Amino acid sequence: MRQTKPNRRQIFTVGAAAAVATVAATQTASATTDMTMSTTATSTGPYGSGVLGSWATGTHAISTTTQIRRVLDTDGVYMFGDSISVQDGKSLATRLLGRDGSQMAVNNWSSRPTSGAVDVLQQWASAYGLPRRILMASGSNDIFDPPKFADQVARAVSIVGRNRTLFWVNIQVVRKGLTAPVQLADQRNSAWLNMQMYDAQEKYSNLRIIRWAEWLWVKPYRLANYLRDGVHPSVPLGQDARNELIVQSLTQ
Questions:
Q1: Does residue 247 contact residue 99 with C-beta atoms inside 8 Å?
Q2: d(CA 208, CA 211)
Q3: Which helix (H) or strand (E) is 79 found in, with range?
Q4: Taking a C-beta distance cutoff of 8 angstroms, is the pair 52, 36 a contact?
């Protein structure tokens, strides 16, 4: 069954309500994330979430050339992600292999914005070719500069082409331990990014959105229980839930 696109009011009002609940519950909490940024009382950036710093030295997980070619030969899945995928990618690959036998090749890099992930997608397409399914698990680090995101989604769709399916996990970021205004900006910017993704889905029939954000919003307690820091899934509860959403989408 094809999922319908949530309207703009639903995305903003439900997301904002979730953010208010999360801020109220966590405004005194302290947690760290792998997102490289600068968020201070005087440096919240033009969109309220801060400024993305250098990600070149971030932790990463990248498949070998041998694994990439094996995935291509067996029509597996390419995955391009950020720190969430660095944490969860191995578990996801194991779950997918057990579900339908598909292997996965990954290029996951902490703190990387989507522009960097799409650059690697282009490199792999040129160097190896692409399988039938490509998974983008990127966008959390785009809260610092949301207007650039739509162009990156369009780039990815263009690289993938219309004969393949581009799966994209949508975005939920409200970083615990930061001020209430920054957390609210995080949620607003997450919703902004998700709106751009849904707008792209209207244009491109081969773009399929995996609705992690909506899964979290539908029961607000999930934001606290399934995210360890407002960004990264808790392990194993959130990790298993997010990975199952992804595997279901990839194999249906």
A1: yes
A2: 9
A3: strand 77-81
A4: yes
